[in-house]
Amino acid sequence: MTNSDISSVFDHVADLLEYQGGNVFRVRAYRNAAHTISRMVESLASVRAAPDRKLTDIDGIGADLAGKIETLLDTGRLPLLDDLKAKIPAVVFELMRVPGLGPKKVKVLVDELRIDSLDALEQACRDGRVRDVKRFGAKTEAAILDNIAFAKSPEHDRLLWEEADEIVQTVLAWMRRCAAVRQAEGAGSWRRGRETVGDIDILVDSDDAAAVMDHLQAWKECGDVLLRGDTKTSVRGPRGVQIDLRVVEHDSFGAAWQYFTGSKDHNVRLRSRARDRKLTINEYGVFPLVLGADADAKRVRGKKSASRLSQAAAIAGRTEQDVYQAVGLPWIPPEIREGGDEIALAERDELPTLVSLDDIRGDLHMHTTATDGEATLGEMVRAAIERGLAYIAVTDHGQRVTMAHGLDAKRLRKQWGEIDRLNDSLAEEGRPPIVVLKGIEVDMLEKGGLDLPDDVLEEADWVVASLHYGQNQPRDRITKRIIEAIENSCVSVIGHPTGRLINRRPAYEVDMEAVIEAAAKTGTFLEINANPWRLDLNVPHAAAAKKAGVKLVISTDAHSTRGLDVMRCGILQARRAGLEKEDIANTRSLAQLKKLLK
DNA sequence: GCCGTTTTCGGCCCGACTGTTTTCAGTCG
Fold it and tell me: If A389 and its partner were Cys, which of A92, A230, A343, A384 is the partner (CB 3.0–4.6 Å)?
């Protein structure tokens, strides 16, 4: 079993225990373990096999869970999960995906109304049977009906980061036009640069929350108001996305931004650390933990006085830096606030200096009208110069990609002739603004080998090898095709190494550990394809590649001049993987890049 | 179920909002 198999077993157990109403901390232990395992670079099997290490060395894995991991590795099954599954109907997971329905409410619906499908729930709502269940009512029934309809609509996929970014920028610009707004910032998974964004979180600094919330509702793109309280409101925005707006006062802005950015796991760990230091963190600030304060807080829960009372004694809150500093840490970049090892790294002052867009000097994967690009060679070069790049590689498709009118040797050499002339003319007046590399994106063929012969590829400055066909082949075949390309001395980099398309197509079956090992051994680069649909390598793979000493390249795979702008998406992906400038080959000057080539 | 420069037992992050309640449970992030 792989780490991700074991992680999903633990997640599943957590779901089932939660449904049963089991100990919440036991549920959390399973969830923590699942989360930790899913982020691990090393396989659990190899940790177990290593003579000097134990499974219990892993944070959040104790004797019990270590035993369960061993059972899973040995047998592929977990008796606990089998038992739970036998007791709990499968429909509960479908029902729990309806917003507003958690384990407790689903349990009541299943037990009292014998609901056995989403359709049955919908019918029960229409029949007015749900409102008669204890602690349900007409409003809850109507909300369930609305949410079922919403969940069924095809548009309800999480947005790609880039799509979310467009909405975030628009809504921030609108909110900043409000006179009552001192500051407005985006938070949540958008700020953490996640591949996809579920809903959009906006934080505002203001003394007049009502005016700020009114302003959001006056936005022309604002749809239904889902909820509205004194300081918080949720509305539907463009494309049906939920926008959560939270308003706080000036002195709490940093604490609220930290809290609202998450992730949940990061915040749990940070707040746990605060407790160890006799402090407590909430979205209003950092406060001394007073004996008996918990009981007091519970008594006044739901009343606004709770936050006001504690606010008087805040020792931090205005900026995020203050909040982290109050618990003895440097500021942690949002992209790595995922509840992994970032707090431990921060404590040891070993946080990576994450790569940034300004570090990028070249773009090594793009297409032109010679194959399936929208812009000509000249237009792409001009666009690259405008973006301040020092070099690019033009990498149109090889001949196997017939759909894109892929290049055979003759047409490729013709393009390279154009590139030579272009470079010459750019060099005529002293220092050229950009150098254009003669490249190609060759295909790794179904039967093995590449779609252009080595004697042609040897003339190229830069060769991207990608796999577009035969994606359904078994794992060992695909792995072999890729490793064969890696071992070819002409191949510079493997393009979009796993082939996944977010929300559309899973990765093909490939042994990435073997691919990374081969890349490390031969000095072949691996690509982080910055296309927002791809972001391939993913974060765990990119982190594993770094750990193995593989150099990575962030490339746009642009098919138009505008396509060059997705570099920032690739940067976010690299940052989330903890990558630094030195890990990325195209942060080098061209001369240094050439030295790195095998 | 995990964990320990106060602890091997007794804690475990924290608060807003809603709906259905006469005081709070459930859900969400």
Answer: A384
Task: Report whether pLDDT(A295) > 60.
Answer: no
Query: Do A437 and A586 belong together in one domain?
Result: yes
Distance A41 CA to B7 C1' (A): 33
- On whether the CB atoms of residues A400 and A577 are closer than 8 A, the answer is no
Total domains in the fold of chain A: 4
For residue A186, what are the domain limits?
159-248
Protein-to-nucleotide distance from the CA of A272 to the C1' of B15, whole angstroms: 16
Tell me the average pLDDT across A97-102. Answer: 84
* Residue A199 domain flag: yes
Specify the pLDDT at position A156: 64
Give the CATH number of the domain where residue A576 resides: 3.20.20.140
Residues 6+ apart with CB under 8 A from A526: A493, A494, A497, A515, A516, A519, A537, A545, A550, A551, A552, A553
Q: Is residue A352 part of a domain?
A: no
Strand spans (E) along A265-351: 279-282, 285-288
What is the per-residue pLDDT across A500-537, written as a single tens digit (0 to 9) for each?
A: 998 878 889 899 989 999 999 999 999 999 999 999 99
Instruction: Please state the φ and ψ torsions of residue A451, each to the nearest 5 degrees.
Output: -90, 5
Q: Mark whether A340 and A363 lie in a shared domain.
A: no
Closest nt by CA–C1' to A105? B26
Q: How many residues comprise chain A?
A: 598
- Read off the pLDDT of residues A101-126 as tens digits, 9 standing for 90 and up: 888 889 889 988 999 988 999 999 99
Do residues A400 and A443 lie in contact, with contact meaning Cβ atoms separated by under 8 Å?
yes
- For strand B, which nucleotides have at least one atom less than 7 Å from a protein CB? 1-3, 6-7, 11-21, 24-29
Task: Specify whether the CB–CB gap between A203 and A212 falls below 8 A.
Answer: no
Find the Å distance, CA of residue A77 to C1' of nucleotide B18: 41
Residue nearest to nucleotide B28 (CA to C1'): A100
A274 and A368 both lie in a single domain? no
Which of A248, A280, A297 is at the close of a domain?
Answer: A248
The Å distance, CA of A100 to C1' of B21, is 18
A256 and A383 both lie in a single domain: no
Question: CATH code at A84?
Answer: 1.10.150.110
8 A C-beta contact, residue A364 and residue A586: yes
Q: Identify the CATH number of the domain in which residue A288 sits.
A: 3.30.210.10
Report how far residue A3's alpha carbon sits from residue A6's, in angstroms, rounded to the nearest whole number. Answer: 5
Which nucleotide C1' is nearest A66 CA? B1
Q: Which residue is nearest to nucleotide B16 (CA to C1')?
A: A232
Type of residue at A140: T
User: In angstroms, how far is B15 C1' from A302 CA?
Assistant: 8
Distance A102 CA to B26 C1' (A): 8
